[in-house]
Fold this protein.
Amino acid sequence: MVYQERQSEEYIDELAKGIKVVADAFFPRPVWVRTLDAPTDEFRAMEGGENEPHEHNPMLGWRGIRRDLTELDHFPPGASGLQEAARIWGLTNVGIMLPMVQHVREFQKAKEIMFQEGLDWKRSMWA
């Protein structure tokens, strides 16, 4: 468990650093960070992807917000990376894009997860 927590912290740190580089380069213009949105066939081609489902049309399948809300090992750390970038460097030009949202319930659940991860909706540009 400690190894997994350390990996998650490293992932969050790397995301925060990458977001800062892009946000600084484009400041004061807005930068939108899109959550993970790879289709299952792309994941299947990666190491460890052999258990990915086979879908008739992966472009419309289990990806974007649908995957974010069911695989919580990447979405909360991604939200934390965004929050860390805003907290550490005071970034004010960064927003988050949730791909493939089809219903307000998906947005509400994502917002709840991000709130649990410490994303400050009142302070951010995406409030």
Remarks:
- The chain is about 50% helix and 5% strand.
